[in-house]
Description:
The structure holds two protein chains of two kinds. Chain A is mainly α. In chain A, 43% of the residues lie in helices and 6% in strands.
Amino acid sequence: MTTFRWSILAVAVLGCSESSNGGSLPAGSGGSGGSSTTSGAGGGGSATPSTSMPASGRRLTRDEIFNTLGEILGVDITPLKGIIKEDSGADGGFRNWRSALLPSGARTDGYEQAAIYVAKTMTTDTIAKFASCQNTAAPCTSGFVSSLGRLLYRRPLTDAEVARLVTLFDVAVGQGDGFERGARLVVQAMLQSPYFLYRLERADRNDPVTQLARVDSYELASRWSFLLWQSAPDAALLDRAQQGTLDATLVASMLESPKARRAARGFFDEWLGTYKLETKALDPVAYPAYSPELTKEMRDESLSFFEKLVVDERGSFLSAFTRQSSTIGPSLAALYGGGAVAGMQDWTNDSTRGGFLTQAGLIMAHTKVEETSIVDRGLFVLRSLMCGDVPPAPPGAAAQLANVDISLPQRVRFEQHREDRACQGCHSVFDPLGNPFEAYSALGQFKTQDKHGNPIQVSGSLTLDGVSRDYQNLEEFSALLAQSPQTESCVVQQLASYAFGRAIDSSDQPFVGELTARFQERSHDFLGLFQDLAVSPGYQFVPQEPVAAAAAQEAP
Amino acid sequence: MSTSPSRALQKLTRRRFLHGAGGAAIALPLLHSVGGSAQAQVGQTPERFIGLFVAQGLPKVITDSFLDYVHPTGSHPLRSFIPFKDRLTMVRGLDVQTQHTNPKTPHSNGCASFMCGMDCSSRETKGGPTLDWIFKQEKAPDTLLPTVNTGVWGADDSDEFYRIIHSWRGVNAPNEPTADTKELFRSVFGSMPNPGDPAGDKENGYRKSVLDAVIEDYKSAMSDASGFSPGVRALISNHLDTVRELEKRIGALGTTTCGAPAEPPSIAGSGKFPPVVANWPEIWDIVSDLYIMAYRCDLVRSGTFMVDSGGDKWPFQGKHGTTDNVHGTTLHNWQSAEHAPLAYEIFEWYWDKAGDFLTRLDDPAFQDANGATLLDNTTVLVGTELGDPSHNLNDFTFMLAGGDAAGKSPFTRGAHTFDGKTDVDFYNTVLTGLGIQKRIGETKYYSGDLSFLA
């Protein structure tokens, strides 16, 4: 049995008088958040810090902002979808990667408009929740700022910060307004602050042993909260941070929260790419079955499928490849045909469905504008299920399918394309991975002929872990993936990348290996993987983000 | 042929912005009247620069005969540039040598190099500032809006930021374009004054006070005492720049006499994948007019505009057939007998859009302080991401239009062909012509200014 050295480590917090943004906290300001540390309690051995740490200084994603605002301020976030820009996709990775969360003027404008909207629409009851009294004298105003600020900045505010924000009450009074207006201005300011918009972590609290910077308890609470809940810490979690009682037990209990369901769905939405369905539309003439309601049902089929498996049942994640049931809506039932009806479906006797790869949402998310898409679907399998990649197409190599009879099956056309040596290197890698999806249209409908009347052939062979195995259809293809150590390790790598907000590189492989071993020990319990990531040594350390990778450069 | 300027203006005023909340008609200023107020406001004629990106490449066979190439099927890709023939510099035969440590396709290389010429280590950022931003820093540092970037595109491959974002302040500092018509309106005119509205003035005063407090938070986060990593502080610094720009705009309320039109509707289709192509003509009208209004009002003096993003995929229906994918199905096969008729029609579509943009800039109804059109006082750099749609990064053609108002252009008009020269040579020659000493791009790709300077 693999000894997993993090699983039983308690994460204790040393009391400290230093606040998370560097200022000394005054007595009574509530902040005792200090450096977190792992102890060797429980016999797990001392925690040797991994070099695998999360990216630091990430901007909150749009979903993280929406969830946080909904929970803390109770506002309807629906209108904000038209105000704050969607996050852009990172380069082959997740939209929560630090590198994908760059600031820009357009986003700053959106944040200001969103802050104005929230400040205007939050109820007086919400304001009252954070105000022990409502006059413009100092105790009331500073109390409001401290109370709300602790939640929005995810740590106690320094005296200087409180004083700065209290001046907004003075501004309101100067204009003939009172406490309530001042409180709304404070909210407006806090929501535009870097301490709300970014997950800022000090990189100068060096551990005397490792010489690595260590997060404090508030920063660790934020890391856990955004990973496990997809939102900011609540008051109770911040209390635990203040008390210095963040530990592995707490992580386990956080996974019991309904917010953990949302976080799990959030990961699968990103990993499968089903978030793209929100804006994806097909030509209704070419695809009469298409409707926005259908794509909503598609997305929900996939996300509910995983939610049930990994949250409700805590079942083996790898069974998702072959699981023979899912819940579908009426539009999707009509699309699937074969007697399918809305509700829970058993696909055991349906050779066209079974396992998440056969679900229409995933298939549509990885189809561009053509009827099918060998390349895009193959690249999804390669990158997201096998963690592989291909080099770029060489210059001049893209006379794609030129001089090829377009009435031939797409599979055959790509076979001919691969005869071009310039194309062969890449297409021979991902085309075979896209072929088994050829029996599914852009909308994910099963078909036996393409639009030219050619019979569709989806059988083939798949090389995994150095061994080639034959498959007859997508279901069998999925089953092969489920049995592969390469897939198992890749799934771990994908979640690690999501949790770390960055790409996983070769230096992370030892960490991925250990995590994979733990995943096996846990019988592929996916929430357990979340838990292991949260308490991993690297999750308590802050990388030194180099300026060269982030700063604007002057022209030479 | 594309919409004529007068027709576009009529459409803009008659239909585009007439639908306010509840469908009530809202009276709007004509672009003409906006132009008049801008003219009155601007004492000296400003210098301006626009980077116009046109996706999918421009084959050498089309530009070998300057603007006159006509495909046997009748498609004439550069026909809409003919009215500007005497105010146009075409530079042909350039190569892009920009390198990536992890490139995806030549579309990526070409997009990353456009107006920048720096090597890249990531697909999420260009390797340095773009030409429009250097122009802004050197020639127009104090405009109310630092930059405006928009256009019509489909946002395929949107995970490669530089395919979509053509204006960069530097590494990791994008000037993101705005696709949504309503959002664009707000970014251009959202902070415009509302004379005689004390409530509006009060709200804007509050906004400024709030931003004053916010800026202090940014300053503290950027300070040494914050303890944050240098890279994180640099990111915060980039963000702070944009907050200061917002504060500046609010602080300048009431200083311009240029009136804003009513807010246009939000129209689905641009900047999304797959795009709603049917809506593109309407989106095009609105974004191009709003964009030009920002220049007429002298709110901004440099930025970028895009006709689609590099390698975008969307369906097209033309005289010579239909395609489900302009990029993969048709333009990749632009040389094949089967696909060429439609491919050249698609080229014509793309470059008609670019020509239409120049036409709108050249609207004689607007006169700058020197009596010239906006185009005459604007240098428009027109470029693309490929030499041709077969993914070639050689034999690029760039064009420079406008900027003649001073009596003569800094660039010799007509076509110029260079062998063994790069896009970086071209960009730096443009900077020299504009009187800017700063250099752009990787030094290793710069062999010296090209001989198209007047």
